[in-house]
Amino acid sequence: MSLEAYFGERYFDLCEMNCLNLSAPIVVKTDGLALLRSEQDSEGQVWYNLSLMNTRTEVSETTAPKISGSTLGYLKSVPLLSNLTDEEIAYFDKAAQIRSYKKGKIIFLQGETPKFFYIIGGGWIKLFRTMPEGDEVIVDMLTTGHTFGESAIFEQDCQMCSAQVVEDVSLLSIPSGVLKEQIRSNSTLALNMLSTMSRHHRHHVSALAFNTMLSAPQRIGCFLLQLCPPGDNKKNVTFNLPYDKTLIADTLGMKGATFSRALNILRQKTKIHIDGACVTVESVPLLAKYVYGSLGTKYISADM
Question: pTM to 2 decimals?
C-alpha cells in the first residue's frame, strides 16, 4: 500500500506539516504508525509497509501517584517556574490540565509540532529518538518534578525526540503557546529556562564522562544507588525498581545478556538481593565503595 492510498486526503496535509519525510531511507513515524520504506516500483512509486503501534490511547485511570495539594502549589516547586510571582504562576495554573496515562502511551512523536509542554506529577516517561535504520536510542528517563517538551519551542517548533509512558503517569499539560507568550514578556522565566536546560546538559555530560570509566556491574550499581531512599539508614535498604529490567538495560546501554551477567557479578560483590521488582541493599556503603572506590562515602553529588 502506498502512503497516498492509505492516508487519502490527509496525505498532502501531513507532507506540509513535515510529518512524512518521504526521503527517509528506512523509518518514519506519524499518528501512531510505524512506516517502513520498502521498495520503489518500475513506475517510480515508493511503497511502504505500515504497522499500527497501538499506543495512542485515551486518558484513563492509572496507578500513577496523584499530584498532592493544589496544582498552583505544585507549579511553585518546579525549577522552570521558580522565582516567578504568584500572579505569574497563576497564569500557568489556569492553563494547566491534569492528565493520567497508562504504560505504553505515546505522548508525542519525534518530528511533531509541539502543542503542550509537560510537568510530571508521578510515574515515568521515556524520551527516545528513532534512528534512520529504525533503532531506538533512549535519550532520557524522567520522573516526578521533571519537565519535558518545552525545549521544542527553540527547535523550529519540532519535537527532537519521542516521549512514551513507561510506568503509569500523571502529567500537568500546559499549551506551548502559553510558554512562548510568557517567555517573550518575562525575562525571569527566560533565564529560568536557560538555567534548567544548562543544568540538564551539564548532568548529561557529567554522567556520560563518568559512565565511560565504569564497568557494566558498576553502572548497574550506580543506577541502584540513585534509587536508594535518602536518610541515615544505610543497612538493608529496600525499594522497587522504577521500570522493567529490559528498559533498565537499554537505559544503561547494555544488551540483555550483558545486563544479566553484570547483575550476577554485582550480587556477588555487594550482596544485593533482587526479587522481581523489589531490591534490598544489605549495605549502601559497600555498594558505594564498589562503584566509586575511595570516593564511596561521598557518592552521588547533587548534579550526578
Answer: 0.69
